[in-house]
Amino acid sequence: MAGTTQDTPGGSPAEPAGAAGSEATGPEATAPEATADADGAAAAAARAAGLEVSATRHGRVNSLAEAAAARGIDPRDLIKTLVIRRSGDDHVFVLVPGDRTFSWPKLRALLGTNRLSMPDAAEAKDVTGYERGTITPFGSARALPVYADREMTGRTISIGGGAHGVGLTLDADEALRALDATVADLSDPPVV
After folding, report:
1. Which residue, 110, 190, 189, is CA-closest to 148?
2. Separation between Cα atoms, residue 68 and residue 39, nearest integer Å
3. Sheet of 79-87: strands edge to edge?
4. CATH assignment of 6-188, given 3.90.1710.10, 2.160.20.10, 3.90.960.10, 3.90.110.10?
5. Could you tell me the pLDDT band of residue 14, with boundaries at 50, 70 and 90?
6. What average pLDDT does range 160-171 have in this prediction?
7. pTM attached to this predicted model
8. pLDDT band at residue 120, thresholds of 50, 70 and 90?
9. Residues with Cβ < 8 Å from 169, sequence gap 6 or more?
10. FRET label pair with 176: which of 120, 155, 161, 167, CA 20 to 30 Å apart?
């Protein structure tokens, strides 16, 4: 799946999509800094939707586990954002907890289609306005339908903040309401 647009919030593609940048080698490289006033489009869009948001800034990370550690959270609370192409120029966002595996068959069944794919990095940036590793539904260049895995409900989550090393912490249920997300079973349990 190398070269996909499966993103972990705040800076790196989710495993196994590959590593982003190498400026930091782990959470110890740059301590997270909570900021009350994040200046990015994603934080501004979340706040404009009436959400209470806390932004965390840290250096680039190379895996979901590093991103979670840099934010001081469990991997399950770090939400991966995927951009999925239904057909042509028709895309959706899919949100999945960091400790779970996205299920193509479950999304295909939900959407009633046999063909889905991930756009390349250039197309994903055109659709969302964000680089791979930073993609989030908040402040996206295009308003896309959002599908969220049911395992992310009922807790505080961290989602991409639209820039490398930036995560937005917010209430999952409030975020899903603001995004008018369809919540469904879209993942499989982690492999242990």
Report:
1. 110
2. 22
3. 12-13, 6-8, 79-87, 90-97, 146-149, 182-184
4. 3.90.960.10
5. very low
6. 94
7. 0.81
8. very high
9. 53, 54, 55, 56, 71, 73, 156, 157, 158
10. 120
